[in-house]
């Protein structure tokens, strides 16, 4: 599920707070239909939750486990590509912890 850059961006955006498809589309720079398809896959995988309010659907990241999964995947990718060393700090980890505290 995390092999697609758009899905990673969507998940990261959802760690900042609940969002609608159109808001997520603006945040990740993708068409709403594409975001909707990605959200459907992420929801089926249990990585995001949804709720309905009238005709609108709002999405959120499932829980802190998904946040840690995403942080580890990003960390692994940085180390595999050489973008980070073993001693490097990770900016997204600090941001992820801040969003966990606000929950």
Automatic annotation (TrEMBL):
NCBIfam families to which the protein is assigned, alphabetical = HTH_metalloreg
Keyword Oxidoreductase in record: no
Protein name, entry field? ArsR/SmtB family transcription factor
Q: Which PROSITE patterns match?
A: HTH_ARSR_2
- Domain named HTH arsR-type: which ranges? 1-81
Record keywords: DNA-binding, Transcription, Transcription regulation
Residues of the region (Disordered) are 84-103
Recorded hits in CDD domains, A to Z, give: HTH_ARSR (cd00090)
The lineage's top-level taxon is Bacteria
């Amino acid at each position: 599920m995390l092999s697609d850059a758009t899905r990673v961006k969507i998940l990261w955006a959802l760690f900042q707070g609940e969002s609608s498809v159109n808001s997520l589309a603006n945040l990740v720079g993708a068409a709403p239909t594409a975001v909707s398809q990605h959200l459907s896959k992420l929801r089926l995988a249990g990585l995001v939750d949804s709720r309905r309010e009238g005709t609108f659907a709002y999405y959120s990241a499932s829980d802190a486990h998904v946040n840690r999964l995403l942080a580890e995947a990003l960390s692994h990718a940085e180390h595999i590509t050489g973008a980070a060393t073993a001693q490097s700090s990770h900016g997204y980890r600090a941001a992820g912890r801040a969003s966990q505290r606000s929950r």
